[in-house]
Design brief:
alpha+beta; 9-stranded mixed beta sheet; Endonuclease, Chain A; 10-stranded mixed beta sheet; globular
Length: 512
């Protein structure tokens, strides 16, 4: 994130110089694994809530979380509704206002006797030892770190540099985002656990999308979580970040949360039941399959273990489109196969429309630099290409007021195919998501949900909220908005354009 995650904005890992060094490095080693017993999901809860929902509606339904505020609200409601188990996995968690609220509700659930399994990628665990150990010290909470770095540092740049000899391993990350409660309901989508994903950051917030379901696809989310939890890549927190012998992290965390994120000890079950019945009644009927990339057995860089299972499913969706494909991807660096699929769809008469980040709204400059090299090919293949405006007129929909000085970025990962298929998940359309990191998502077959997503997304393509990128009558790429036509990326400074150009000269496409 531009605001509080990346130490430097020039690269997903921290610096262009480090990137060059990394690209020259080789080597892979599996992390030291603990001898852990296999641990699986508990039997589905028999709590009255789930019986009431089953009695009220017998078909599968899906409820969209279109705004960050609703995304946070329903995470807390789901955690408060849990009676037996919570399984949570995320790429990123921050102890800011939103992150601490989630933490407080998880602690309250554990105090009620709920078993919590929390799986966190190791990319952004710097500075958070106290908060993480505070959770892990609770007898009902087990926190594991996915694919941990051997050499620790509080600097993202130095962490990458110190672990340079294991680049092919540490380059492989768990980008999954998933919440499962009681084995009965799941939340799937793109949001990490930090203020900017829920609309509460003071400077920049993201437009994202998620979905809640209690349908048969929940079983797939459980199989997935158990596979990662027991993969050997998920290590107990204490094996990764030892806790000082005299620490009292749990009580220190409780004291910290008393003032920063107080939570009622006993959620009102009647209010929770009403909330669930309300979204169930408004949920869209359909069916879905949960897809995920398998955790690698050995070297994740080896072709036999490449986490590309979900990528294959998404490519097949595009290849089978008959009428239209709408792609929403925060980071867009098409592979050759993806270019071919898009071109084939256009040649068959299926219109392809894409929304991605602009130079100014992209929180990873290197990702935009890599994308820039594909713009002309996408346009020439017939794509209607749009980029998010950092000062979008309607950005107030995705962040708390006042918004005058706040910026908007895109973080959603969506795919709409024809009028009855939708993908919602964690996967961007770039090599990092398609071939390097693990990803998850739901492919939902529902005319109602597809149409609802179209309605929600219409405003994002409006000229006051997105630049249309196309060729003018002289063949030059231009950016078109409500104010007129621009010869270069609007809103971006000359320095940003120069950085974008320079980084684009580097051989970085396959790392983005």
């Amino acid at each position: 994130m531009r605001s509080n995650i990346s130490a430097l904005r020039v690269d997903k890992f921290g610096g262009a110089a480090a990137l060059l060094f990394i690209l020259l490095a080789t080597g892979c080693a599996r992390p030291k694994t603990a001898d852990l017993p296999i641990e699986t999901e508990l039997p589905p809860s028999q709590a009255p809530l789930w019986s009431a929902l089953a009695a009220a509606r017998t078909d599968d339904w899906f409820y969209l979380l279109n705004t960050g505020m609703e995304g946070l609200e329903w995470r807390l409601k789901m955690i408060d509704s849990a009676t037996t188990s919570i399984d949570l996995e995320t790429f990123l968690w921050q102890p800011d206002s939103s992150g601490m609220q989630i933490q407080a509700h998880i602690l309250a659930a554990a105090d009620r006797g709920v078993r919590v399994r929390f799986l966190l990628d190791d990319s952004f665990t710097m500075h958070e030892d106290l908060a993480l150990h505070g959770l892990d010290d609770h007898p009902n909470i087990d926190l594991r770190i996915y694919n941990p770095l051997r050499h620790r540092s509080n600097s993202a740049f130095w962490r990458e540099l110190f672990n340079i000899g294991e680049f092919s391993r540490i380059n492989h990350r768990m980008h999954n985002k998933l919440l499962i409660i009681d084995g009965r309901a799941a939340l799937v989508g793109g949001r990490n656990l930090a203020d900017e994903y829920f609309g509460f950051d003071a400077s920049m917030n993201f437009r994202d999308m998620e979905v809640i379901t209690t349908g048969v696809s929940v079983a797939g989310t459980i199989r997935h979580f158990d596979a990662f939890w027991n993969s050997g890549w998920a290590l107990p927190l204490g094996d990764v970040i030892p806790e000082p012998a005299d620490a009292d992290s749990l009580n220190e965390l409780r004291e910290r949360l008393v003032t920063s994120a107080p939570v009622p000890a006993n959620p009102d079950p009647e209010l929770l039941d009403e909330a669930w019945l309300s979204i169930e009644s408004r949920g869209f009927a359909g069916s879905a399959d949960f897809y995920f990339d398998e955790p690698a057995v050995e070297d994740p860089a080896a072709p036999d273990y490449a986490p590309d299972q979900l990528a294959g499913e998404l490519q097949r969706l595009i290849e089978n489109a008959n009428q239209e494909v709408i792609i929403i991807s925060a980071y867009l660096v098409p592979t050759d196969n993806l270019h071919d699929a898009i071109k084939s769809a256009e040649q068959r008469g299926a219109e392809v429309r894409i929304l991605t980040n602009s130079l100014k709204s992209n929180n990873h400059l290197a990702a935009h630099a890599a994308y820039r090299g594909h713009v002309e090919k996408l346009i020439d293949n017939g794509v209607d290409l749009y980029e998010v405006r950092v000062k979008a007129t309607d950005r107030n929909l995705y962040m708390q007021s006042p918004v005058d000085k706040k910026e908007l970025g895109l973080h959603a990962k969506l795919l709409l195919v024809d009028d009855d298929i939708a993908f919602i998940g964690s996967c961007n359309l770039d090599p990092r998501s398609l071939k390097i990191n693990t990803e998850v998502g739901l492919i939902i077959r529902s005319f109602e949900l597809n149409q609802a997503l179209r309605q929600d997304l219409n405003i994002d393509f409006d000229p006051s909220n997105a630049w249309k990128v196309e060729r003018d009558n002289k063949g030059k790429v231009v950016w078109i908005g409500a104010e007129g036509v621009f010869p270069g990326p609007p809103d971006a400074s000359q320095i940003e354009r120069l950085e974008d150009w320079f980084i684009g000269l580097l051989p970085i496409d396959q790392e983005m």
